[in-house]
Amino acid sequence: MDRSPEEPSDTAADDESERRAPTCQEPAPRIKRFRRIASERLWGKRIDQYLIMSGLGVSRSRAARLIEDGLVLVNGKPTKPGYRVKPGDEVTAEFEHEPEITVEPQDIELNIVYEDEDIIIIDKQAGMVVHPARGNRDNTLVNALLYHCRSLPLRKDSIIRPGVVHRLDKETTGLLVFAKTDEALTGLGNQVMHRTVVREYAAFAWGDFELQEGTVDAPIGRHTIDRTRMAVTPFSAKTAVTNYTVVKRYNVCTYLRLRLKTGRTHQIRVHMQHLGHPVVGDPEYGGRNPRVIQHRDHMPLFRDMMGITKRQALHAARLGLNHPRTRKYIEFSSPLPPDLEQLFFYLEKHAGR
Which residues of the chain carry a pLDDT beneath 70? Predict the structure, then answer.
């Protein structure tokens, strides 16, 4: 295929960086620009594979996030993760380069539910991030686990998530499993991929659900305007399925048990907002907005509940999996943490008022 001299091939370097004004907290981010004209050599490759093979300089998971965030363009338009490149396609990207993060062991107290030579189950407290990332470089569960376990198996897609099998949001409490060996990491990863891991959550959601139980099957992707949030959207979205069961109905909210079939970012919180029943206390998805209250007489309840719950009322209460070594099914449960227990007793006290 003919190509003019100024058009780089798949392997030619055409990246530029601009340094922003540095801050005191962390190294100045660099803006990375990438441009390639696809040749016949990589004809038919998925766009995420193409980016890696063409020298984008990030992990495949990072490349996938850039695509989902609309930062990768093919012929001037955002593309989908499954797109396969054709000769002559112009592929461009512009994004902040994330400097390499080193993960250091830190002596942080852990609430260990179970541990053996293969896995460790943690009951996570609110306010703790699972693994380091930009803006949260230390004091994470991974930092604590590296101190406790001395080492964790590295993932192929990320050096900052050793041992991580699945995650919980920073303010969500409850059960998480981490792998301590390469074999356990692979085995648990396969269980998550095949959706055989049982993940059940307790939650309080605003309003009264029409059904006693139901399923939310709605794809989740990045919000088209606010890229830090997720949304039910047809654009660059992934399948997301949540099953729910009503445990008890109160004046202004409902106590639920929810079970994940998929594990998308913010899945329960987004799906509950999509149903019109945001998780109580959720600051990002409408759970702290007074408009959730339909009757003025219930506003005192709303104010009291916001005083009790400083975060989303969501807790990973049950975790079941096949042990990666013995293949036997094991299951763990976690009671409501103190703040959600206080919310439960408050609702019980004011039920029917």
Answer: 1-29, 98-101, 157, 352-353
Q: What is the pTM of this model?
A: 0.76
What is 26-97's CATH number? 3.10.290.10
Q: What's the CATH code, domain 195-334+345-353? A: 3.30.2350.10
Burial class (CB in 10 A: 0-12, 13-18, 19+), 339: middle
CB atoms under 10 Å from CB of 183, counted, come to: 13
Active site residue 123: no
- Strand pairing category for 253-260 and 241-249: antiparallel
**Helix (H), strand (E) at residue 267:** helix 267-275
Range 100-194 classified under CATH 3.10.520.10: no
- Find out whether 335 and 341 touch, Cβ atoms under 8 Å: yes
Pairing between β-strand 241-249 and β-strand 213-217 as defined by DSSP bridges: antiparallel
Closest by Cα among 101, 147, 93, 89 to 120: 147
**Catalytic pick from 169, 182, 217, 297?**
169
